[in-house]
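REQUEST ID: PR-0412
SUBMITTED BY: lab tech R.K.
PRIORITY: routine
TASK: structure prediction, single protein chain
INPUT:
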Amino acid sequence: MPDPELSASGEFGFIDWVRRQPAADARVLVGPGDDTAVVAWPAGADCLVTTDMLLEGSCFLLAEAGPRRVGRKAMAVNLSDIAAMAGRPHFAVVSVGLPRRGGRALAEELYRGLRECAEAFGVAVIGGDTNSWDGPLTISVTLLGSPTGRGPVLRRGARPGDWIMATGDFGGSILGKHLDFMPRVQEALTLHGLVELHAMIDVSDGLAQDLYHLCRESGCGAVLRAESIPIAAAAHASSDNQSPLDHALGDGEDFELLFAVTPEDGRRLLAEQPLGSVRLSHLGEFVDRGVWLESAGQRQELPPRGYVHRLE
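STATUS: complete
OUTPUT:
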C-alpha cells in the first residue's frame, strides 16, 4: 500500500513524498523540488555521463520481478557502465513513465529499490521526472560520475598480444542474475589501481557481442578459448536446446567486466586474485584480425551473438 501520508494526487504528491525521505548528502546543495538540482562537483574532475532505459516486457517482467527489484536494476545497470570506465559514481536523476492504475504504490517501491542500490554505492538521487500513461512501466536513470586520476578506461585501447580477462562467470542470467547482479564498481577501481587496463567493457549484450565491441573500437581481433570461459551454474540449469557454452556466449546481462591487459599484468592478476570472492579468468588473447572461438585446438569464426534492440 502507498505511504499513508500521500494524500495529494498525481505527480506533485509523489515529489513531496520523495522530498520527505531521508537524503542527507553534503554534496547536494539543491535536491528534488526545484527546476534543477545543484551539486558540488569534485574539483578538477571530468564528468562521466551514462543513461539506460528499462521497458516493461522487454527488459523485465514486472509481475515476476516486482517494482523494488526493477528499481534496483535500473540503478545497477548504470553503475555497471561507470564501472566499465573504472569511474566513481556520484549523482543520479530518474525519469519514470508509470501506468495510470496503481502508479503511486508502484512509484514508491521503485524509488525504494533505486535508492537502496544508489546508497550502497555512494550515489545521491538528486531529481528526475514523473509521468503517467496508458502503457507499461518505463524507467530511465542518468548517472554522473568521475574518473580516477589515471583517467577513464575506454573500449578502444586493446592491442594484439594483450590478454582477454574477465571477472565472474557467464550465462543463464535470465534465471535471476539480470535483476540481482552486483555492479563491479569497486572491482574496476581495484584493477585500475593495480595494472594498466588497456580497454574495458561491461558485458550487458553478451560475451561474444561485447568482445566484438572491444575489437571494433580497438581495431584488432580476438581468440576466445571455449575451455577457459567460466560458465555460471545457471547456464547449466537452463532447460532449453542451447548448450551452457552458448548461454555463456550469448545470453547477456551478466554485467561482468571484460578487459585487456598485457600478458605480464594478466599473469600477476591470475596469481594474486586481488578481488576476493570475485574470480578473475584469462579467456584468450587479442590478435590482429578476426574474432575466433578456439575449442580443442580448433578455431572457428565466432559470430557476434547477443542481444540487439531491433529497429525496423
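NOTES: Residues 102 and 267 are 54 Å apart (CA to CA).
REVIEWED BY: pending
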